[in-house]
Amino acid sequence: MRYEAPESLEGAVALLAGAKGEARVLAGGTDLLVQMRADMVDPELIVDIKKIPETRTVTEEKGGWRIGAAVTGAELKEHARLKKVWPGVVEAANLIGSTQVQGRATLGGNLCNGSPAADSVPALIAAGALATLAGPKGRRDLPVEDVMLGPRKLALTKGEIVVSFLLPPRPARSSDAYLRFIPRTEMDIAVVGAGVSLTLDAGGTITAARVSLGAVAARVLLVAEAAQAIIGSRLDRAAQDRLEAAARAACRPIDDKRGTIEFRTDVAAVLARRTALIALDRARAN
Amino acid sequence: MAKHHIEATVNGDPVEFLCETEDTLLDVLRDTLDLTGSKEGCSSGDCGACSVMLDGRLVCSCLVLGCEVGGRKIETIEGLAKGESLHPLQRRFLEAAALQCGICTPGFLVASKALLEKNPNPSEHEVRFWLAGNLCRCTGYDKIVTAVMDTAAILRKG
């Protein structure tokens, strides 16, 4: 097994594109090392992307925020300005694992691990984040909801890596939130996750919204009907009911040891409503 | 494939070692550098027995590759005591019987020290959440949490 830690994106892409056998990107390693230890993967090449500066920085860009794919949860937590503008994205990233895992785990890794239950992914999708990819044919941007195709299946081509995420500019009276259900108080895999981002007008009516649900389908869902259900409302009880119905209708979950189809569908509706109410409160305060 | 030649700093001392790609930092610490205070519990980042500081960040050394740490600073449980003088956390853990079998203790101490350096006055809630990645099957946690809170109070008094 080869280990390479290139200092440029071009170097990383060339290594991955030229790999003969299975190649894996190493960011925080909190999934990759566990899978290697369990003999789930046996890569011929590991490309550590943490020495590439743009994977490790958080910067303001065109009024929005660009977050490097290899920035850790602990670093996001300490970024006061990012947390103020995108509290939902940061709280979702911070729900992944323990303090020790937060010291290593990254947004890029959480997405590219390809789990429908990844906590940060519904928050990024609700935020309208773009993933910036670099590959042998150059760079391209993909909406985060289009990166994952199914469990462990990504839209990335050979040699392509996720470099960073771009969160869009935030109008006044906007905010976001993420909630998940787990059967204990922390450090568990989401049975259902819900991310909501919304913007209010001066009168408190929702003018824009995005709703995303995790762990209720083979990929994390962007639920346009759920957003439509609350746009134009002040999130009164009728709008909450419409939101719940739309969330419920979008679910296509599996039965497994962590939750049944019926339970996941019910919880998705409840979480979508609660998450929207938190985002609403935060948006009013902005 | 040739082994990696790595130079790093461990507990303030420069060290160099050879490792295979698949060797974790925990393997290197225990088997190559003979620093056996960090323990191997789960090898999957769930138990925290292998907790160390990597460039000032609390991590599980079982989830770090040895070849990743070139040029970086590592602090382990062996760096807590100064010679014969125990760290206040170590003293309080002993006095408060915050350990039984002891396997988890180095990880708890390293993680608790990291907490108190960030937050000298943590609430019980904060202590419990910070230490949620450290598993203990003996104590039931109460004595550990109390020992950390007591130490925080002692350190605040100076």
Question: What report would you give on this structure?
Answer:
The complex is a heterodimer of chains A (286) and B (158). Helices cover 34% and strands 25% of the residues of chain A. The longest helix of chain A has 25 residues, at 261-285. Chain A has two domains: 2-167, Uridine Diphospho-n-acetylenolpyruvylglucosamine Reductase, domain 3 (2-Layer Sandwich); 190-285, CO dehydrogenase flavoprotein, C-terminal domain (Enolase-like, domain 1, 2-Layer Sandwich), CATH 3.30.390. In chain A, a hairpin with a 6-residue loop joins strand 13 (206-214) and strand 14 (221-222). Chain A is built from eleven helices and 14 strands. The N and C termini of chain A lie far apart (50 Å). The radius of gyration of chain A is 19 Å and the shape is globular. Chain A has helices spanning 9-17, 32-37, 73-77, 80-85, 87-94, 99-102, 107-112, 120-127, 224-230, 237-250, 261-285; strands at residues 2-4, 23-26, 45-48, 58-61, 64-68, 130-135, 138-143, 148-150, 153-154, 161-167, 174-181, 192-200, 206-214, 221-222. Chain A has 286 residues and is of the alpha+beta class. In chain A, strands 4-5-10-6-7 form a five-stranded antiparallel sheet. Chain A has a four-stranded antiparallel sheet with strand order 11-12-13-14, sandwiched between helices. In chain B, strands 2-1-5-3-4 form a five-stranded mixed sheet, with helices on both faces. Chain B contains five helices and five strands; from the N terminus they run ββαβββαααα. The radius of gyration of chain B is 16 Å and the shape is globular. Helix content of chain B is 34%, strand content 16%. By secondary structure, chain B is of the alpha+beta class. The model of chain B has no long low-confidence stretch (mean pLDDT 97). In chain B, helix 2 (88-95) crosses helix 5.
